[in-house]
Task: structure prediction
Amino acid sequence: MITKTGTSPNCSIARTLDLVSDRWSFMVLREAHLGTTRFADFRDFLHIAPNILTNRLATLVDAGLLEKREYQEAGERTRSSYHLTAAGADLKLVLAALQQWGDVHRPREDGPTVLRRDTRSGRLVNVGFVDEDGDEVSEDDVVFEPVAGSPADRSTWR
Amino acid sequence: MITKTGTSPNCSIARTLDLVSDRWSFMVLREAHLGTTRFADFRDFLHIAPNILTNRLATLVDAGLLEKREYQEAGERTRSSYHLTAAGADLKLVLAALQQWGDVHRPREDGPTVLRRDTRSGRLVNVGFVDEDGDEVSEDDVVFEPVAGSPADRSTWR
Result:
């Protein structure tokens, strides 16, 4: 079934991955979250082939995660820059969760290369589960619960 | 540089994605987080071709995310079941962050198919940033901060 939003899978994880499931897309988004906007900077920081970068940027613009703008410096031709949309910015938690898992389970010998900081308090933050009061809930206490009658409900399969 | 852990990228997001960057791997892990353990159940629930499932399960076992066990029912041959390791279980936050983003930015017409519930309080939970006191921090206030002198530090590139 194709929904109004143009995406088919019933699983929201799958719908997200349809947009960003390849590694280069994630890397471009990470770079955008670090403040990179210009083609040459994406290329140099990521060591990515220009044709692959062009392709991934176009895909991410089409998906509504990046917005393309034009800019021009004195004496130069018009160039494009790429900026996170609200939806792209909201992937911050996804990137942070991937980062946190990697730093714990595949640690780098010399320690993390990127930290997550609360600019208001200046303190470091983690990704976690939070209840509606804004209090952290232990990961061990959280379960994924299929909605009864939805395609994720397997009780009717047996 | 290859580190002791056998992974090369300096970026922890990339190290995580090296393990689970394809969509089927994420789907198998989601299924495991919903409690599925048997080959036939993974196959039926995911509508995945057996050869692809065999391949993904082996990859996830090799990566240390799933553990393979043997079981036998009366009158049947020995079969394998697949169980989350501690590292695999710890991907709960990654899956939940992907799910949450999809439910917000690519919503399903009939609503979410899977919820996240705190089994202690019975309440629904979200994924968010939390400080060391366990208090939620707004996503807008959190920045990714390259560690000075690390490969993510671009200040020395210019």
Notes: Chain B touches chain A through 85 residues (CB under 8 Å). Residues 92-105 of chain B form the longest helix (14 residues).
